Fold this sequence. Notes:
By secondary structure, this protein is of the alpha+beta class.
Amino acid sequence: MAPADRPAVVVERPTTSDVPELVAIWWDAFGAEALQRIFPQTPDGRRFIERSFEKFLGPAPGPGEIRTECLVVRSPDTGVPASMAIYHIVPEGCSAAKRAWRARWPAFDDLSDLSDAVLNGFFSPMEKAHEHVVGDRGHVFLEVLATKKQFQKKGYGTALLRRGNDLADQLGVECYLDASVVGKPLYEANGYVERDVSAVVEKQVSASMLRPKKIQG
């Protein structure tokens, strides 16, 4: 089927019943051996990811709090999520404590397979870069964009990215993300520009990218 003849890609919000499939997408995208030290594929590791999605899909927070928007594209054959994005809508002036990775992600002190030092070592450099680029300005933060391997190259990730861009444009704010080497060209094609964070991060494993806010007019 030619790309022009593909069915329209539908972006929607998942429900809590989709959590097992969201976990499956996570493992498919982040199951590399190097990442298993951070997010172990064990019962404890799985419970942490389940808790994460349960939190992301939870009730809307109060004023001045970060709101999380989880979006998916479903398989046209089975109807289960095949691609997902996790966006955080950060209000202007939101405190550093509320923006911290520990505030966004769930507690794990009862999960012995999860290491506080390892998780902090993973999240902290990205957090420093994020803070350096955006500070306390209101923005949309794309924290995760992932597609199961068998559904890649179908425009699912692009559709999810554009939905987030549209949301930011409606709010009149910037978009921020941490890009992998593989994902960077997609983000560049959609208006994101790499920012220099060498002043705060000595060894960067991802590219800090910012999409400027759209000028209304």
